[in-house]
Amino acid sequence: MTAGSQVVSSEARPASGPVAVSRSPHASLRPLRLGEVQITGGLWGDRQRLNREVLLPGAARHLEAAGNFDNLRAAAGHGSAPFRGPVFMDSDVYKWLEALGWELGRDDGEGLVRLADDAISLVAEAQDRDGYLNSYYQVAQPAARWSNLAHDHELYCAGHLIQAAVAHARGRGDERLLHVARRFADHIERVFIGSDRPGTPGHPEIEMALVELFRESEERRYLELAGYFVDQRGHRLLGPGHFGASYFQDEIPVREATTVRGHAVRALYLAAGVTDIYLETGETDLLAAIEAQWRDMTAAKLYLTGGLGAHHQDEAFGDPFELPPDRCYGETCAAIASVMWNWRMLLATGKARYADLLERTLYNGFLAGVALDGSGFSYVNPLQVREQHHDPVERGARRQAWYDVACCPPNVMRLLASLQHYLISTDGEGVQVHQYAPARVACGVADGRRVAFEMLTEYPWQGSVTLQIEEAPSERWTLSLRIPEWAGDASVVVNGEPVQVDPGAGYTRVARVWRAGDLVELDLPMPARLTEPHPRIDAVRGCVAIERGPLVYCTEKIDQPAQVGIDDLGIDPSAPLRADRVQQPLHGAIAVKAEGVQAPAGSWPRSGPYGDYRPAGAASELERVELTAIPYALWGNRGDGAMRVWIPIRS
Amino acid sequence: MTAGSQVVSSEARPASGPVAVSRSPHASLRPLRLGEVQITGGLWGDRQRLNREVLLPGAARHLEAAGNFDNLRAAAGHGSAPFRGPVFMDSDVYKWLEALGWELGRDDGEGLVRLADDAISLVAEAQDRDGYLNSYYQVAQPAARWSNLAHDHELYCAGHLIQAAVAHARGRGDERLLHVARRFADHIERVFIGSDRPGTPGHPEIEMALVELFRESEERRYLELAGYFVDQRGHRLLGPGHFGASYFQDEIPVREATTVRGHAVRALYLAAGVTDIYLETGETDLLAAIEAQWRDMTAAKLYLTGGLGAHHQDEAFGDPFELPPDRCYGETCAAIASVMWNWRMLLATGKARYADLLERTLYNGFLAGVALDGSGFSYVNPLQVREQHHDPVERGARRQAWYDVACCPPNVMRLLASLQHYLISTDGEGVQVHQYAPARVACGVADGRRVAFEMLTEYPWQGSVTLQIEEAPSERWTLSLRIPEWAGDASVVVNGEPVQVDPGAGYTRVARVWRAGDLVELDLPMPARLTEPHPRIDAVRGCVAIERGPLVYCTEKIDQPAQVGIDDLGIDPSAPLRADRVQQPLHGAIAVKAEGVQAPAGSWPRSGPYGDYRPAGAASELERVELTAIPYALWGNRGDGAMRVWIPIRS
Question: What CATH number has the domain spanning A424-523?
């Protein structure tokens, strides 16, 4: 019954990237194959280079120092060191390995190859003869496997192992890790399906992974195992835990749940996995449920940055409109999970709204999660830090080189390593450009016909994007360009001729017979603009945020005149905003200047002993000051200063 | 060396209540003796009756069901049941016993006497021969005593044992528990002082207790032991724990700390204990430090209700001005700790500000902590609950009959049982009335001269207070009446003659030769009023709160017209407020009516897919509605509905 020897070779099929949707008819769009798209520079090119040169080698050192590799060595029988770290230590290794798989698929490199090969050998050695593989249980609790699905993350770690294995199989054509992963998946199938054992993971993740394993192996039983875990969820099998069953999304069956709730990363990994199942099965109840959840999220639980999760305590979504900027959790992993979910929703439906939110999340909530120089990551991504702030409690919001719970850093790495796959898709009609970045594309469209083009842009700093067609079939096909939700006066010009743009349509579609040398010029004017929150978002009432293009801005203490305090700063919303390119160390970013006001020090009249309240109605004096805002993604790169996204309106 | 047999009899001295300051010259004011003041009715009379008839007997059943008594039985060698509950289970028994000690000092009662005596016998039986007493360690970890001062609460439980013992010695003249407590205190002295062992409790509490034990026993070494624990704090002996050393107030020596920070109950129990030490030693560095901490707290970390603690995660103070109404922790225990600290500060300094904050806390943050009918307690006391709210995470904000961590219920009981002691004090010159309630007072003033008076009032519903002098010495003495910080146009009339009132002075002092039959009429007009927050309190920007007299008001869903949603409700601050007495079940409380506005359903224009943000500057339509506010202390007694204290300004 063990399937360990039945490794399926993928050589017959062209290599894929992440979310390699099968020939299923339920995907509206399809991702490009491996190598069909490359990011050639710009902001994301820079981040991918940083990932390769700094983050990935650095992570190997952190995984060694923190004990992740030692745990696997102990599981493999080398030495008798006690298990170190939280129960999900293996998953950090797997996420990093996944990043290496995609990275080596983009570009070979001896150092990274050796790191990957050593780790793969270690993982293979650690696997038990029956296929089981989890160093925490193997080392610390050998008799207790599968005894605590709610909290002990065995299935979560297995999911990350499978995703890493799929990345190495697709990225490098190396199936050693896939062999290990399939043996473990087969073991899990025997434990649950084979023994009719009820159970669902406390932390979703394996659902996405098993669907990918199905795509890679073409073995439908992996898809069915993913479906089993989804079906089992929502029946309170996991118990109430400390925060109630909704923390695990286990209080309502998946098909009946219309809201996002509980632990944000759990909720979004689950949603992404469910979308993957829909992509392969076309079950409309699943799509209806996750579409409702997406609407709930974006109507009332989404930070302007794309950040998700309002509570520190349980790393969870708050009540609708409970979106405090200071106590925002906005875990970097939740932003990554949102990118993964939105990409799958985009593939399923072809609707621009998912690409819009993917963009907002990438450029803000995600990008803020890694330091410009790669020296640290943030775990928590608040929209406000006060001048007098308390380090220990907020330590997750300060970039650190590594964390005791190190889920975010290798998660950043696997998304950066595969980021080019989230830009562009194809369908039977043509090519869809969802995200704008300097890139080279050479891909098949319908019936194996091939197109190639180069995308040139200074996005996100400037909104002009040029596409140079380099190769095109003689038949007509459609080039679709996303007009972002924030863009008011977009224009598209093809070989000098304007094309009609409907800003509400999501995509501007140009169907024609394209020829090499054709030139498409998209212009997305990026005046700085002010955005206001829904009046129910109590925590930022009376404030506006500055945005420009896809970027959310923030005021950081270091950029203001010395006498200006971030905590007392207001903005006159009637005064003009002015964009202004800044120098190093902010990489030529565009700052925005605005007319600010602030109350002079000591102007709050104290009534009685309580300095924080007074009878209503007294007037405050205000002084005019210039206010400088920088992209939120770049905050915290010049020390540990105060910051705020939402600025009180005063005039 | 054991002092177990050296029980000091207190018969020579008149019986005292809590905080029985010694003859120390460092107390500006002195509390009344046991029996010198009685609450005769009104709101607090009603709460004291509820405590006696409902809460105290009910707690005995909960302590039995939760295993608190069984843990002590196991420690006493009866049965072999495993330890149940958190490590500090004993402290719940002790707080309840303390309440019984004060309660039985006010009024005998066979049922309560039997409950108390049974529990005291059990505690005495559980004590080890060497004086040690902590059922968690005795039952679950006998070899590990004192091994985890940071988290295992042995000294905290010892403190509550001592406080209970003092209450029974003072309240009932029953020294059996004092004998147990002194044996344990002597044991602790040997462990720490006797062996030069560094250490300080992870949760302060024993400091207050040891000072009271010093007062009761007149043994200075208990005061010194309290001082030892205070001196040892602030040197990071407790380690960083999960939230950093400041969680335990252990990152800065006590005399150098000028802010309140970390776990709120820990911070305030420590501050109260330090104030107790100051009261006995007069060390000015201690007073300066806690005065600075009090200023920091009231300038930037105090909820309008007197609630304290802005974080759920670590039950801690937030950064300055981080005061979210929805995620307010405002633990009932923190309000109680604040009452204890402010009372000690008042005794130390005689300054009205401490009585002001004590009043604000009693009538709002504390009183909200127990249901009108005694059927439940709240642990968390937020200032806002949305219409769509999530039960599991907020479960601490819903009144429950008991809690797994049951610190708050018996804490409520011990404060209610001794509440009359917080109303009135004496000094060499006369009598100070700090809090207004129907009461009878018969106390000594300087040199044993005796005064008696009756206080008649419908406070807090009406602001007129009448004092009828019933007995007075022939010498001149001073009657001091606190003019609350909220009272604008207070007046005092003695026998029909107006007395000059300086509202900024804190107290109006009337020095004269008083005669039986003299009549003092204090009037504190209570127009409903609007209060605004400091502009730095981001979470309630653009809002006002309704207050009336000492009461903070809130809008509760159930009181509004059916079409009005709490989440969309605004207030026109220019329209008049109107007080209006309401019927059952709110005990004849005064409601306040105001002119409200709300946006009609569906009036928020959605821009793009994100319902929670839009380009700034669009206007919203508003409808006028009547808004009803009730005292915050009474919310949550008619179901589980939405509530808010801070109401957005719209007009």
Answer: 2.60.40
Which structure tokens are listed for A583? Answer: 């120098």
- With H, G, I as helix, E, B as strand and everything else as coil, classify residue A468: strand
- Greatest Cα pair distance in chain B: 82
Q: How many whole angstroms separate alpha carbon A224 and alpha carbon A230?
A: 10
Q: What is the mean pLDDT of residues B523-537?
A: 95
Please say if A189 is a catalytic residue.
no
If you write DSSP's letter for every residue of A24-73 in order, what string do you get?
-TT-SSEEPBTTSEEE-SHHHHHHHHHIIIIIHHHHHHHHHHHTHHHHHH
pLDDT in tens, A407-416: 999 999 999 9
Substitution target from A301, A327, A489 for chain B, most B beta carbons within 10 A:
A327
SS3 B140: helix
Contacts B389 to A, Cβ<8 Å: 319
Domain boundaries, chain A: 1-13+42-232, 245-422, 424-523, 529-648
Which chain B positions have a beta carbon within 8 Å of A643's beta carbon? Answer: none
Which pair of tokens denotes residue A408?
């975010």
Interface test with B, best of A305, A342, A610, A644 (most B CBs within 10 A): A610
A244 → closest Cβ in B356, B392, B610 = B392
> Nearest C-alpha of chain A: how many angstroms from B479?
23
Cβ within 8 Å, pair A313-B389: no
Q: What is the mean pLDDT of residues A81-104?
A: 97
Q: Could you tell me the CA-to-CA distances from A293 to A271, A300, B389 in Å, in that order?
A: 8, 11, 16
Can you give the pTM of this predicted structure? 0.94
- Of the candidates B386, B535, B616, which has its C-beta nearest A573's C-beta? B616
Query: Which one from A328, A333, A407, A408 is the annotated catalytic residue?
Result: A407
Contact: B607, A244; criterion CB under 8 Å? no
Using the beta-carbon criterion (under 8 Å), do A534 and B613 form an inter-chain contact?
A: yes
Among A20-24, A52-56, A187-191, which stretch is predicted with the lowest mean pLDDT?
Answer: A20-24
Sign of CA dihedral B581, B583, B584, B585: negative
ipTM: 0.92
Name the closest residue on chain B to residue A608, using Cα atoms. B485
- B-chain CB neighbours of A539 within 8 Å are 324, 538-539
pLDDT band of B363, cuts 50, 70, 90 = very high
Indicate if the pLDDT at residue A8 is higher than 50. no
The distance of Cα A179 from the centroid of its chain, to the nearest Å, equals: 28
**pLDDT band per the 50, 70, 90 thresholds, residue A428:** confident
Whether B543 sits among the annotated catalytic residues: the reply is no
The average confidence (pLDDT) of chain A is: 93
Q: Cα dist. A222→A5, A186, A193, A275, B266 in Å?
A: 16, 9, 11, 15, 52
Among A205, A315, A359, A595, the active-site one is A315
Give the pLDDT confidence of B260-294 residue by residue, as tens digits.
999 999 999 999 999 999 999 999 999 999 999 99
Tell me the residue length of chain B.
Answer: 651
Give me the pLDDT at residue B394, please: 52
Task: Identify the three-state secondary structure at position A263.
Answer: strand
Is the confidence at residue A395, as pLDDT, over 90?
Answer: no
Residue A47 sits at φ, ψ, to 5 deg, of -65, -35
DSSP-based three-state secondary structure for A286: helix
**Nearest 5 degrees, angle CA B575-CA B577-CA B583?**
145
User: What are the structure tokens assigned to B572, written together?
Assistant: 């026109």
Contact residues, chain B, for A392 at CB < 8 Å: 240, 243-247
Contact B609 A298 (CB under 8 A): yes
- A5 pLDDT band, cuts 50/70/90, is very low
- Residue B150 φ/ψ, nearest 5 degrees: -65, -40
Q: Which of A322, A392, A620 sits opposite B243 (nearest CB)?
A: A392
Q: A292-338, pLDDT tens digit by residue? A: 999 999 999 999 999 999 999 999 999 999 999 999 999 999 999 99
